[in-house]
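Our collaborator T.R. sent over the components below with a one-line note: 'Predict the complex.' Nothing else. No constraints on interfaces, no templates requested, no preferences about which chain binds where. So this is a plain run: every listed entity goes in together, and whatever single assembly comes back becomes the starting point for the next discussion.
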Amino acid sequence: MADDVARIVVAGHVDHGKSTLIGRLMLDLGLLHQSKIDEVIASSARRGTEPEWSYVLDSLQEERDQAITIDTTRVWFTHRERRYTIIDAPGHRQFLANMLSGASDADAAVLVVDAAAGIGEQTLRHAYLLAFLGITHVIVALNKIDLLDDPRRRFAELAAELRAALHRTPPAAIVPVSASRGENVVLRAASTPWYDGPTIAETIEAIRRVPAPLERAFRFDVQDVYRRGNERVVVGIVTGGAIAQGAEVLLLPAGVRVRAERLVRWPERDTPVAWAGESVGIVLDGDRFLGRGDALVAYGVPARAARGIALETFWLAAQAPATGERLRIKRGTQDVSVTVESVAAVYDIETAREGVAGPTAQYNIVRLAVRADTPLVFDRRADNPHGARTVLLRGDRVVAVGFTTAEVAETQSAALPVAQAEREARNGHRAAIVWLTGLSGAGKSTLARAAERQLFARGAAVAVVDGDELRAGLTADLGFSDADRSENVRRAAAVAGALASAGAIVLVALIAPFAADRAAARASAQHPFVEVYVSAALEACERRDPKGLYRRAREGTLAAFTGLESRYDVPAQPDLVLDTSRVPLEEAVGALVAFVDERTRPLRTENTNAPTPA
Amino acid sequence: MNDTRDLDALEHAAIGILREAYATLRPLAMLWSMGKDSTALLWLARKAFFGEVPFPLVQLDTELELDEVYAFRESLARAWDLDLRVELCPPEHEMDPTLPPATRAAARKTEGLKRYLARESPQGIIVGIRRDEQATRAKERIFSPRSPGGTWDVRAQPPELWGYYATDVAHGAHVRVHPLLHWTEIDIWRYTQRENIPYVDLYLARDGMRYRSLGEKNITVPIRSDAASIDAIIAELHATRDPERAGRVMDAESEDSFERLRTAGYM
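Returned assembly:
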């Protein structure tokens, strides 16, 4: 049981009965001590009311007097060998910041709706915010069902209305309850014989914990650097994925590849691996200058460092953001001053209307673009919501919470061409032309496509230029004479160059039989150019004969076939040799990808930031 | 109960919070009452900073702690080479006379803390309170800003989510840091047992009585218990419905006594 904790936030419009539902749940599960029960009864009697079970949570004097929840309160209990944390979120509009605080780390939500009053303004706002925060498991409690004249009809109406309103996060269950009477909370109500769904207790038993982001790409925000003996230990929390001792990762915003020599803890010595959610110290290779605000990320995934950033936020402050205004942004352990460049749109949650001038910013969704004074490390929400979480401050007050959604190009350089270094910074790798040469059937295209898939999966910009495909279009006018073969290579090299100029790693799969043509392609390249010799033996290629070309050449229906009638110049000094007739395909692909990695690492060497006073 | 992965998660989070406090709030200090919670917290601080706690430990001393507690303080301060600062609290007759008697006695610690704050001007004070101890503490933030007078404005707390904490401190104000906020009483005992952390043996039953919560001897009473080991304490806590602070006289004096204490700056 120990690891199984369900964190559940209870949200909804003010006065719809959130605290009462929680108090009742605890009472009926037998979790309250007699002294607490007596205290609630006595406290209620002093105020001249029936036992008010919300007092279990609403401990603040003012809350008891005004009958509202002011801040989030958590209660903990164990039920059927499982631990629960129940977070009571305030429903009043002015306490939305507290609702966010309470809901931000929940696995699931119970949205309480007063069946007599219907859907309230905060019902929609809370429902929207739950989806905004990424909470997808939502249970609806239709409360005060005992106050209705025709509960069955009203329940059906409201359930339909709610399903329409909650289309972003369709509810897992809609339960008719009376929190004050304890109907369908833990005990099934005799008054709702027409309802055969689960009770609230049964719905929360079905909640599963949202797992730590282990499967995501590695992310680590540097909190501090400690000097320990002769070593500098970089401390922080792994916020995504995992890191193993000896792993190579990218240091951002510098864009330098570094190696985690050791992962350290105390009093234990080294640890082989650190997972998402863990605090760990990392000793890096070499004498790196880095400090709080830097980040270590998996190499080849699309984390980025940029000054222009687009954001989607939930705006908390009364004062809307203004173009040109100075704000602060926090992302990871970075804390950077920014200038608001533009406010793209304000989305009114209640009316589902969007505009720039119309809706008020406060308690609505605001999309804006900012320019940071120094590069900010972030993920786009579409790639990795966890790494996109951010807060905006005006002075020392949090004015908005939200996500980084995209990088925004530099305004002042709008007319300038995009520099290769900018592409590298965004892609996390250099562009390169990787030329796979070899006989027909050696496996060039197969290797290129498999490597493309792996690189693409890691977020690299990658493209394949395949000889056979070119001959269907760009080089359809060419035959197989020596001159045409040379022209074929020249055109393929030109296409590869254009793609590499767009920042891509270009895998060229082309026989390119003549050494002179390959040398010319290399000489004309404006980007790193490497030659990979796919060296399967002629007999193996002929045996494979995937396109039936060897057979046709032998039959005499295909002239000037490379390796038979036409010569193939074996590369004298290839950068890599892959013999596909000797090693299995996966091994060859692995070797090719490792080689490409090696050759496309960013070149920038050292962070020029001031050294950390460790 | 041998599965302690939940404790790992709590430990990693607490270490992260301690490092965040040290990186953002200077000068920093930690309150140590020698109780089970703040001693477990002290152990976590040693883990966070690789064996050497880089800030002072402050004990708010009313000179009314139990003898065993003082003996524990001396032995651990020596064994762990702690930078211990004992802050003597002002006498009870200087407290707000409208407070009930035991609450007034507890308020002495608030005043002792105010003296320390006035003299040392720390930006951050680390405190080992937990949300499950008492309903008012359940409202707390992990980083909880205090006014220059040390008071807590529970109605105007900043939002706290995704590990972004309030680390901006106005002149003369400070931030209370609560790394154990999400821990429960049972978590503390399981962690103390797993990590082999020292504790005052008054927590163990002798002659059918034990202290569940250690306060000053004039305002704390032991409870009936036969729990003479940590295993027995954990078993007892799983079964009990009694609140932890049942032995603290001040909590029961009036409905809002603890809230009044905390708003004024109590831990």
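Summary for T.R.: Chain A touches chain B through 59 residues (CB under 8 Å).
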